[in-house]
């Protein structure tokens, strides 16, 4: 159950259709996942989000797999069910092994606990960390 | 201002002292940052947290720098000032360049926005993501 | 699946019944949504929550529709599935158009990303913002 | 203390300078707040963030003041000190009265408490909310 | 730096003054902490918040100290600096020992990490937990 | 739907089997809940998490029931569906009455709202709270 209707191909406006076509071309698959079909309720939000995602997740100073793992971490902390699933699937498609996933989960768990401790105790930042 | 007193070396109990010594040995520095001096208010919590952190952040299937970047991501989303500073410093010490940091920030920002969108619209998870 | 039983009309205590009756009168509908039937597990919590909600969401310096949109924003960030659905439904009933919802989603996404960036970089607040 | 250096005008690259100039032109002020000077550590992130913000916060189906109030709500829930200050200042500059701010705070508080209750009890979404 | 002015006694309206007087009477101290002086920017929000807090934190089926420790836990997870400090002070005033605080921190850290793990992996709720 | 396969007894490695056996022994039940079967995707994460949980949740300066209620509070704020259910079930098994649960929910709701208010207004911490 979603708050908006998922837009099917045959009801997509030309602007939505253009984004769907670009998603297909960039990813090399015909499949458009639900997130984009939901965002299509607002064509300009859809276009802006896809355009930025395409740039941000492209290879650069960081490997695309590293980026997917960072995405999983953010999504877990935000408790986003959809993004946890979609980016875990993406990370696996880009080569994340079971061992890598286990270590990723371990870091997420570790950071979550020390974040909570530092916030509870309100530990002052060390001068030594000044950049 | 912290909720507990930061424990100085000369007031550390033997159990606390042992952890401080191990932190110094593992990191190759004499400096003990405030987080550990605050956690020393509870020696068993200090020992358990350090022991686990040491294991989790060690090299493995993931590079230590990747782990630090995941740590930064989790800390940013949790709004943890202390951890954002300490792990950004650690990541730089392990080789994070300005370009890598810029891309890391971009992924964190991207994930935060799509997480919020997916949560607002409650997008249903695609069957295609089933592992 | 909820952690408490949803209280049906015929098992409601007089205190619960009085709140249900007031919800019906204020909203002009016979329907009591699940949130209130769950809260009824604690009659005083139910009464206090409903009484405050009624005051807060009434017309005032802000339009009730604006209040519903703020409610959606808070619920999205907190990842609250129930509240995202119930308040999106309320906002629509109060006149939120598709265009308004699209812009609301865009602001939620924008704020989520700049929040994450400001927290990651721990940007100091400008003196200029001092009220 | 921030994790990056705040970029002053005289050290800004041409790409950064162009964004700073546009911020000044759009806002009709010479003042560039710290968020943008921090983001300037990554010129493409700076440009993308500013470009999108300018579009999202412009008048449309929602009034710019409503957008600022939604921004405040998101920032409060995310615990973002910087954004709470900067967008409260912006909202006031756009006409938010003390009465409006008081009601905004009341809605944020109300939503935060019912979000927590719905999440604690895991209340199932009513069929009646299906769009 | 706060987004509103802290209201001093001599500028308090009669409605604000009445709440301040009640806080003093209930707590047996002349000191009014900043939270209430800030909330006084909206007298009805101030009155509603204090009235509810007084009821909720009173002795009942749960001991007031247990309630303060739950308050600390919520505040730590929400990253609320103010509330972490004020409720840790309150808990100590009500008898929280160093050992109790250490165990409280340990539970907060434990829950934060398993929450993150369960959210990352999206573990399905067991039928056995159905109430 | 989970991101990993839930490990059944007959496919558990010796390390996983040892943890499952210890869970059964400590809890005095044959039932292993899904969280542990999911964590078993990474045997060392499973072992570390269980070992720490066993220590943290044991009787000490705080009663085990108090610990479970703190766990519920953290899980509600983090929006963790799984943990809200599993720890509410545990708290009930340890004696949490309906009245206690109602007061726990009331404190969680109260703290969530004052946290949001303090964060929105960025109330400065009182000197009086300095430990």
Shape of chain A: elongated
* CATH superfamily caption of the largest domain in chain A: AhpD-like
Largest two-chain interface: A-B, 71 and 71 residues
Distance between the termini of chain A: 47 Å
Kindly provide the radius of gyration of chain A, computed on alpha-carbon positions and rounded to a whole number of angstroms: 18 Å
Structural class of chain A: mainly alpha
Proportion of strand residues of chain A: under 5%
CATH topology of the largest domain in chain A: AhpD-like
Poorly predicted ranges of chain A: none
Encode the helix/strand succession of chain A as letters. Answer: HHHHHH
Oligomer: homohexamer
Mean pLDDT of chain A: 97
Overall helicity of chain A? 55-70%
Largest sheet of chain A: none
What is the CATH architecture assignment of the largest domain in chain A? Up-down Bundle
User: Helix segment count of chain A?
Assistant: 6
The level 1 CATH classification of the largest domain in chain A is: Mainly Alpha
Beta strands of chain A, count: 0
